[in-house]
Amino acid sequence: MYAVIDTETTGLLPGHRHRVIEIAVVLLDARGQVEHEWVTLLNPQRDLGPQHIHGILTADVLAAPEFGDVARELGGLLAGRMVVGHNVDFDLGFLRAEFGRLGYAVPLITERSMCTMALAGYLYPGAKRTLGACCAAAGISIEGWHSALADTRATAQLFAQYLQAFPSPPPWQWAYEEVRRLPWPALPGSDVSPTVRPVHAGGRHGWMSRIVDQLPRVPEPPQADSYLALLDGILANREITAADADQLVQVATELGLTRSEVQELHRYYVSALAEASWGDGEITAEQRSDLDRVAVMLGHRVSDVDDALLRASSGRYVVPARPGAQGFPPGSTLVFTGDMIEPREVWWDRAVAAGFAPQEAVRPDTTFLIAADVDSLSVKARAAREYNVPIISTEDFRRLLPAPRPMRSTSPPQTERRVG
Q1: Which of helix, strand or coil describes residue 392?
Q2: Who contacts 195 (Cβ-Cβ below 8 Å, separation ≥6)?
Q3: How many CA atoms lie within 13 A of 289 on its CB side?
Q4: The dihedral formed by the CA atoms of 70, 73, 79 and 85, expressed in degrees to the nearest 10
Q5: Name one GO molecular function term (predicted).
Q6: What is the torsion angle, in degrees rounded to the nearest 10, for the CA atoms of residue 295, residue 297, residue 299 and residue 305?
Q7: What tens-digit pLDDT sequence spans the chain (420 residues)?
Q8: Measuring CA to CA, which residue among 330, 260, 262 is closest to residue 292?
Q9: Residue 62 · residue 43 · CB < 8 Å
Q10: Measured on CA atoms in the order 261, 240, 211, 281, is the torsion positive or negative?
Q11: Hey, which residues does 5 pair with through a beta bridge?
Q12: Which residue of 88, 154, 257, 327 has the fewest C-beta atoms within 10 A of its own C-beta?
């Protein structure tokens, strides 16, 4: 009756040539009992994207089947069943795109599927958003974060519990009857064996992952949780790259979110992340640095993190002294690129005065790049994206600088010019 699915992908958007690299399916009967499991890695014929999140190496997929090899078998598992997933629209979007690349339209309809993220909010007001948080509330253990099979098994257990909360037949029985009769095309496929990920492959981990699982859902606008669920996944490993940021912009556009709505969601997210981080009553220097980096990459100030931590601690949090630099520690290396309204020398001198170490070229150990245009295609910007160096705007950098001290004299100050 149900097909529970989860995918691991090379990115957030199938329209940006991102592909499915692992898919798992767990079939359930009407009572939520497991009937069958199936999982395979897939060779996407491209780079694997955020390997720090999904934990899959290129060597793992070299001998794996391509999507076209498993299309027939996968279609046979999904046909006639209601699809279930956690943030299911994400997975369905990728599967529709994969079948579409083969030239087939398949009846995978978001409005005729079940989403455990949405059900959690309906059944348990105040329930958190992530799969980990929902499972923890239900007493379900997940082994192997961001393994498609582990996440699918957990989602199946979660949905089985949710089934018990509804009468039999459930209120969506009419939709299942409709799905059961939808015709599927005759799909291509090969007689290939699935490729299972090696035991070394991991997934997300660390303190930021645990904090993300504590974040509450957002009731308005309706698309908010879908957007923030993707942001959760990106930040679970304590970073957001420039490429991630570009994809989030496109996701927001496809979800119909306005710029002001996204800005408000980012403001909420920075605040909620900081408040959740105070749960143990202590923030380490490393954790604070992570929070500041997230705030800056989402277009907010580190002072917003200060404010959130002060609220969460009822004023007990001690705002750290930041000699010269807020958000990135003193001594952080930076590079400028692009034509700025004020001369480059002025920005260079401000950076030095604030305790930063400006460089002429981007290197793998560069802390961040300041760009007149964050979408720049300059050599420096391309190098920054290659090395996963954060790119921020000049306005973002201005917010990181100490407030200017009032002038003691009306006479113009004597300054030294930078040589070289």
Answers
A1: strand
A2: 40, 41, 60, 61, 63, 64, 65
A3: 9
A4: -60
A5: 3'-5' exonuclease activity
A6: 10
A7: 999 999 999 888 887 789 999 999 999 999 999 999 999 999 999 888 877 677 888 888 999 999 999 999 999 999 999 999 999 999 999 999 999 999 999 999 999 999 999 888 888 777 788 888 888 888 887 765 568 898 999 999 999 999 998 888 899 999 999 999 999 999 999 999 999 987 544 444 455 666 666 677 777 787 788 888 888 777 765 566 667 777 788 888 888 888 888 888 888 888 888 888 887 788 887 788 788 878 877 777 777 888 889 888 888 888 876 544 456 888 899 999 988 878 888 899 889 988 899 999 999 999 999 988 777 778 898 899 888 888 888 877 887 787 655 444 444 334 343 333
A8: 330
A9: yes
A10: negative
A11: 25
A12: 257
Q: Which tokens belong to 368?
A: 């961040």
- The C-alpha atoms of residue 117 and residue 134 are separated, in whole angstroms, by 8
Two structure tokens written together for 15: 């329209």
- Identity of residue 368: F
> What domains are there in the chain, each with its CATH number?
2-181 (3.30.420.10), 207-314 (no CATH), 333-400 (3.40.50.10190)
**What does each C-alpha distance from 198 to 9, 90, 204 come to in angstroms?**
17, 25, 16
Neighbours of 101 (CB within 10 A): 13
Confirm if 159 and 116 have CB atoms less than 8 A apart. Answer: yes
Q: Are 325 and 400 in contact (CB under 8 A)?
A: yes
Residue 86: both structure tokens together = 């956690």
Is the whole model's pTM more than 0.70, yes or no? no
Q: How far apart are CA 6 and CA 153, in angstroms?
A: 9
Sheet with 2-9: strands ordered across: 34-41, 20-28, 2-9, 82-85, 114-115
Element (H, E) at 334: strand 333-337
Q: What is the DSSP letter of 396?
A: H
Strands 333-337 and 114-115: unpaired
Q: Which of 128, 117, 54 is nearest to 85 (CA)?
A: 117
Residue indicated by tokens 């604070």: 288
Q: Is the Cβ–Cβ distance between 84 and 155 less than 8 Å?
A: yes
Measured CA to CA, the distance from residue 227 to residue 268 in angstroms comes to 13
Q: How many CB atoms lie within 10 A of CB 409?
A: 6
CA–CA distance, 328 with 297 (Å, rounded to integer): 12
The Cα–Cα gap between 415 and 235 comes to 42
